[in-house]
Amino acid sequence: MMTETWILFEDSSAYPLICNINGNGKNPVSTYLISNNHTDEFLASANRACSLVHSYFHSHGQPIGNQVITFDLLGRNDQALLSGKSGGLAFAAAFACRLLNIDSSKIAATGVIEADNRVTKVKGIENKLSKALTFLDKGDCLFFPKSCRPEISGTLLSELENKKIRLFPIDRVSQLMEVLLKLKKKSADGELLRHKPLERHLPTCFMWFAITIFIGLAILSIYFFHGQWDRGFD
Amino acid sequence: MNTINLENALKIWQETFTISNQHITDERLYTLSQSGGLEDASDIELEHLSRCPECLESWSIVCMLDEFNLKEPPNQTVFISSGYLKAAASAKQTKEPLNLKSECGKFIIGVFPDLQKPGKGMITLDTVGHLPDLEKMRATVSDAKGMVALEKSIIGGRAAAVTSDMDQLDFSKYTILLTKNLDSQNDD
Questions:
Q1: CA distance linking residue A128 with residue A212, whole number of Å
Q2: What is the dihedral of CA A173, A177, A179, A180, to 10 degrees?
């Protein structure tokens, strides 16, 4: 199962972001929103986020081709206007998770992504994190701008920490990518343990089999040579 | 409010069946091709025109192409375009990604089947260049069989939809209907 990425809004609402990708685009990144009611700014924030994730892979020697990306907000009423730029970090996380095929815990994110890769302040951080507290569970990840940290109340921070939600205050998109790549590695290991126990333990099994054969052969040869010694060799 | 029962359902079906089969007469197409003609068209005629490539083709022949000129802001409530899949005529089923440019040259339709999930995929619509008059208009893209592939508002020069009927879509002919979006007008 794919990681669920949630986008947080100032009005204390949050929705899972459904990201679909296709590697047959005409441009490096073409981003579309399925919603009928959003501003140009909201779409631009999604496009910028995806472009930076695309650049990250490219600059790290893993080009991902021309991607067509669609985002949909699950359960969002089309009547409500989607606006603002703070969804950028959530778009970046959703796109990266989809590309990396991460099978991990839930992720929630908020942060404005600037063209120079910086993650900057958002409005209503307290409302957004309070909402995240209601649906994130132990081990889930919460990304927010580092510059917002002083605005978060101590009570809320301790509630998040008590629930064992992993907090990631970041100030660059590359930091998000580094965390996601670690999650990818963990989820890949987890997948191996869960779904491929035989393959996982095959080297150990082979080693024990070889040791058993070796000991068996050693005993047989000792017995044989001992018998021969007693009988003599002529 | 109408209640849904067998009688009403059959009536609706009968109306729908009539729309899909009864072509618009040549006289009526001529009237509709005149300046402002589409504004007088009934909903049934518009529905048929948007979903019937044959009538649309006849209509577009009768119309002068300069009616589509978007350099001047149109006051009409409707804009229709169409196109054909020019490559391999036999490739009716959408199993490979396609980028289709409309006959009027103002739109590009992208068809992106999901190779890992047969039948599923994305349909995108992009305007070519900056066309502010088309912003927030509701775009309906129908295939050769009149099946609606996309019905979304154009925002930032683009719209998209995901579909589970990719196998059934036939883009050998298609139509694009733009109407003013009443929802977006209410927002203000």
A1: 60
A2: 130
Q: Do A44 and B156 touch (CB under 8 A)?
A: yes
Categorize the per-residue pLDDT at A193 as very low, low, confident or very high, splitting at 50, 70 and 90: very low
Look up the pTM and report it: 0.72
Contact B162 A70 (CB under 8 A): yes
Query: Contacts of residue B126 in chain A, CB cutoff 8 Å?
Result: 30
| Most confident listed range (B40-44, B77-81, B118-122) | B118-122
Tokens 């009538």 correspond to B55
Q: Is A68 in Cβ contact with B112 (below 8 Å)?
A: yes
Task: Provide the pLDDT for residue A69.
Answer: 95
Question: Tell me, what DSSP letter sits at residue A124?
Answer: -
- The maximal CA–CA distance of chain B, rounded, in angstroms, is 49
Query: How far, in Å, CA of B151 to CA of B125, rounded?
Result: 10
Q: Which residues on A lie below 8 Å from B152 (Cβ)? A: 34, 36
The single-letter code of the amino acid at B111 is: V
Give the pLDDT score at A191: 53
Q: For chains A and B, what is the number of CB pairs under 8 angstroms? A: 55
Highest-confidence segment of B29-38, B47-56, B165-174: B165-174
ipTM of the complex: 0.72
Residue B177 confidence class, pLDDT cut points 50, 70, 90: confident
Say whether B184 and A30 touch across the interface (CB within 8 A): no
Q: Is A101 on the interface with B (CB under 8 A)?
A: no
CA angle A43, A118, A13 (to 5 degrees): 50
Long-range pairs for B38-44 at CB < 8 Å and ≥24 separation? B38/B76, B38/B77, B38/B78, B38/B80, B39/B76, B39/B77, B39/B78, B41/B78, B44/B15, B44/B19
Measure B156 CA to nearest chain A CA, in Å.
Answer: 5
The reply to whether residue B110 touches residue A81, judged by beta carbons under 8 angstroms, is no
